[in-house]
Amino acid sequence: MMRFKPFIPILAAVLFLFSGVQGSDGEVEGWGSNSDGQCNTPYPNSGFIAISAGENHSLGLKADGTIMSWGDNELGQCNVPMPNQGFVAISAGRSHTLGLKASGVIVAWGCNEYGQCEVPEPNNGFVAVAAGEYHSLGLKADGSVVAWGRNQFGQCNVPEPNEDFVAISAGVYHSIAIGPDSSLTLWGGNYWGECNVPEPNQGFTAVSGGWGHTLGLKADGTIVAWGQNHLGQCNVPDSAPFVAISASNSHSLGLTAEGVIAAWGAGGPGQSGYPHYGQSIVPEPNQGFGAIAAGWFHSLGLCMELTGAGSQASSEMGQAGTAILSVAPNPSTAAFTVVFNSPGHGEASLAVYDMTGREVCTLPIGEIGAGQNLVTWDGRGNTGESLSPGVYLIHIRQNGVVSNSERVVLLP
Fold first, then answer.
1. Chain centre distance of CA 80
2. 355: which residues sit within 8 A by CB, 6+ positions away?
3. Number of separate domains in the chain
4. CATH code at 342?
5. What is the pLDDT of residue 308?
6. Same domain, 176 and 250
7. CA–CA gap between residue 87 and residue 155 (Å, rounded)
8. Do 192 and 282 sit in the same domain of this protein?
9. Does residue 12 lie in a domain region?
10. Residue 137: which domain range?
11. Long-range contacts, 18-21 (Cβ 8 Å, 24+)
């Protein structure tokens, strides 16, 4: 079996020099149905690095490894088990929630009617999670997929050979995995053709399963959509290049390289009544977004104060503490040079995360002095493997202090 290579599953962000931003750095914005407060992010609405949306609840992963959850909590899907710490990835199902710990253990809570919260033993060695309506998926470090919960359409019957997968997604009734050759394997419900991936089945860097449709993101930034399309959820707008995708009940989201969210399907302008709740009407100004998540009838966007060649916030921070001042070139096909400020002498390192919050590279810098320093990251992971094209978060650690985070785009 091949060694797991960190991958960009569904959530992504992008770093460019924007003329403005949607909100504060790490702030979550929600729109669409708000029947249970799923669009009302709790205070403090800042410091988020990943988001996920269920039927009527929302999740946010903070940079400190804690999870915040809000919205419908009738079945305990917002009751994060203690200790609420050490999480590196999240996924919201219809009414259950999955959290992945840095130790490789999955924590599950909320609705357990079909055993979707009963993680099979051994509960260790996981590197990614995905929650469907009533089933759950976990990706192991060896590339195998573990599936549990409701299986009425075979969505838990992982096809053989169950090995070497690099990313997963759970639709309502179907499951998807990306293979090492960037092709898709799909299984489970196929009533609307959601498992019939169009040819050529290659070049995929991310995938997202909805109710009866599927989205696939290609390395060239285009989106392929197939399956149920009665509300236009497969009619991808001409906004490429995209860097992230998210499919849900009857609408779809795509994040462009400029930080703009494209939304299509149910809940668009001029649509009213069920299932139209404005989930495809992105609030203005539609800019400065770094990640997206489509819930059943609502949408989430993660705002990021993008600084590229340095911002006022970074400069002010740099006067007092450890702070990234610039990243160049960005985007890049190979190496990124990071210029950062240090308040004094000490050991430092560069940490790189994918947009689920999983740390994919720790690069020791060594002993540094006060003032401006630089380090170059070559786009590789901890074992020297080339990381998949996509968007990553980086920050500097020094003497127990963590700098501001910046987004970098790794091109094919």
1. 19
2. 8, 11, 12, 13, 49, 50, 244, 290, 291, 390, 391, 392, 393
3. 2
4. 2.60.40.4070
5. 42
6. yes
7. 26
8. yes
9. no
10. 27-303
11. 18/258, 18/259, 18/287, 18/288, 18/306, 19/287, 20/285, 20/287, 20/288, 21/287, 21/288, 21/303, 21/304, 21/305, 21/306
CB 147 within 8 A of CB 175: yes
**The one-letter amino acid at 83:** P
Residue with tokens 């009414």: 95
With respect to residue 61, please indicate whether it lies within any of the assigned structural domains.
Answer: yes
Q: Which two tokens stand for residue 13?
A: 């962000």
Asked if 24 contacts 305 with a C-beta cutoff of 8 angstroms, the reply is yes
Task: Specify the DSSP element, H or E, that contains 312.
Answer: helix 312-320
Q: Which residues contact 122 (CB under 8 A, 6 or more apart)?
A: none
- Stretch (H or E) spanning 317: helix 312-320
Query: How far is 63 from 264, CA to CA, in rounded Å?
Result: 30
**Same domain (yes/no): 84, 113:** yes
Is position 7 within any domain?
no
Q: Which of 303, 337, 370 is the last residue of a domain?
A: 303
Q: Is residue 14 part of a domain?
A: no
Tokens representing residue 162 in the block: 């169950």
Got the DSSP string for 170-218?
Answer: E-SSEEEEE-TTS-EEEEE--TTSTT-PPSS---EEEEEE-SSEEEEEE
Same domain, 279 and 134: yes
| 113 and 68 housed in the same domain | yes
Q: What is the pLDDT of residue 11?
A: 30
Contact between residue 291 and residue 301 where contact means Cβ atoms under 8 Å apart: yes
In terms of domains, do 201 and 334 share one? no
pLDDT tens-digit profile, the chain (412 residues): 333 333 333 332 222 222 233 455 689 999 999 999 999 999 999 988 889 999 999 999 987 889 999 999 999 999 999 999 988 889 999 999 999 998 899 999 999 999 999 999 999 999 899 999 999 999 998 999 999 999 999 999 999 999 999 899 999 999 999 998 889 999 999 999 999 999 999 999 889 999 999 999 988 889 999 999 999 999 999 987 888 899 999 999 999 878 899 999 999 999 989 999 999 999 999 998 888 999 999 999 998 754 443 333 333 333 447 888 888 887 777 889 898 888 989 999 999 987 666 788 999 999 999 888 989 999 999 888 888 777 788 889 998 888 887 878 777 6
Instruction: Give the residue from 214, 208, 143 showing the smallest Cα distance to 181.
Output: 143
Contact residues for 285 (Cβ-Cβ < 8 A; gap 6+): 20, 22
